[in-house]
Amino acid sequence: MPEIDLDFGGVGQVPEGWFRLTCDKAVYKQNKNKDGWIINLQMHFTDMPEGNLPGTEMPYESFENNMVYDNPSLKPNSRWKLKRILEAFTGENFEEDGMKVSYTCSVDCDEFEDTGKCQHEWVVPMLQGETVVALIKGEDYEGRTLARVEKYVYDDGAIEFGPNMTE
Ligand SMILES: [Zn+2]
Predict the structure, then answer these.
(1) Whether the Cβ atoms of residue 16 and residue 149 lie closer than 8 Å to each other
(2) How far is the CA of 74 from the centre of ligand 1 (A)?
(3) Residue 98 domain-assigned?
(4) Helix, coil or strand: residue 115
(5) How many angstroms separate the CA atoms of 27 and 44, rounded?
(6) Residue 10, in any domain of the structure
(7) Segment among 96-100, 115-119, 130-134 with least mean pLDDT
(8) Interval between CA 134 and ligand 1 midpoint (Å)
(9) Is pTM, for the whole model, over 0.85?
(10) What digits encode the pLDDT tens for the residues 136-167?
């Protein structure tokens, strides 16, 4: 009798290791509890390496352009993480005291220009379109596996990234 191959190896997985991410959008907004601010980073896998996820026939390249999210907080006790992210994306040094990040209205409205406030989405231009090298780990979340960024490293274009890069 013929058999149906139900090998879904790799489905629902995320590639783990060091990969390049591009930031499509960095939204400056209030957190869910409305007691602080975050930068909602909307990134995607870029330049995925050759080869398959270990133990599967799922190529790393099939994750190209898949989204990865992170929401670094601007609260003082999380600043160290934000500092690392900013440094990895820009290659510049940020001091935790006096760390300055400019944001703007995503549609450049007059109201924002005049008053510094508006109802549109606010974005952080210096992060948008930039790449970074990130250590990705899978994390279970409500029955799904999400890609979580453990570390960010400045992307000087020379890093041999991929699943085997050492930490
Ligand atoms: Zn606006």
Answers:
(1) no
(2) 21
(3) yes
(4) helix
(5) 15
(6) no
(7) 96-100
(8) 31
(9) yes
(10) 999 988 888 899 999 999 998 776 666 666 55
